[in-house]
Amino acid sequence: MINYKQLHHFWTVARAGGIVRAAERSGLAPQTLSGQIATLEAELGVSLFRRQGRGLVLTDTGRVALDYAEEIFRLGDELEEALRSRASGRTVPFRVGIADVVPKAIAWLLLAPSMNLPEPMRIVCREGKFDALLGELAIHKLDVVLADSPMPSNMDVRGYSHTLGESTIGFFATPALAARLKGGFPACLDGAPLLLPGGEAAVRGPLLQWLDAARLKPRIVGEFDDSALMRAFAEAGAGVFPSASLVGEQLCKQDAMVHLGDANGVTETYYAVSVERRLTHPAVRAISAAANKELKIGQEGP
């Protein structure tokens, strides 16, 4: 069985980038750290570090061990924080990153189940670019990231993409704009002012392909990385805009938008990206379970 004290010494040295730095930070003697790591390597029968010049670098096995150590000690921190919060009656923080291309109404729909847990949660939302949020996830500043695409395979970040659900895509416009459009759907889109999500949105390509296949040439009058800003322009009557049909009823009732029709075959998929292959955080598990039930889909991928 692994000696977790020795594993913690290995983790400290790996994160510090060397034994001397780790000794300065931990207050332990370099000889102590070196001896503990040597014992761990001997017991496991592997080499975790190799010498490079005057310093140490991780071996391939060491990098694997560091990934697991990061998760072990992150879970330990979460356990400590959760137990202290329970003892003091404080709420447990749930730190969520939301890619800015994910519609705010969809983010709320996905996150709502985390607000109804027996253990009170304090949700902390961070919005930004998907890549930047994955960086925050990698260093455990976030518990999960919500996005419209899985984690890119070429990113040097250990993480797992959990499919939450999907929605068809519809086109919406203000009543005044809808009244000016000519013909039925989808012909009414030809020549119509159109607002589109930016290049980072996964649904942009399929939407453009759908328009091309239907021989429709709308006037693209705006492109937006931020879904909320696109919706604000649409509410001002600047153009027709695409949105998930999951929130279509809300758009029509609360925002007085008109549903023109759906882009058949075009869907938007939503993912929870975590550092865990199997979800353990209670809030993330609640989100996944509710999505599986309500959105009729729920698979995990690497």
Automatic annotation (TrEMBL):
GO molecular function (one): DNA-binding transcription factor activity
A GO BP entry: regulation of DNA-templated transcription initiation
Keywords: Activator, DNA-binding, Transcription, Transcription regulation
Domain HTH lysR-type intervals: 2-59
Matches recorded under PROSITE patterns: HTH_LYSR
Keyword Transcription: yes
Calcium keyword on record: no
Similarity annotation: Belongs to the LysR transcriptional regulatory family.
NCBIfam families: PRK11062.1
UniProt-recorded name of the protein: LysR family transcriptional regulator
Originating organism: Thauera humireducens
Origin organism lineage: Bacteria, Pseudomonadati, Pseudomonadota, Betaproteobacteria, Rhodocyclales
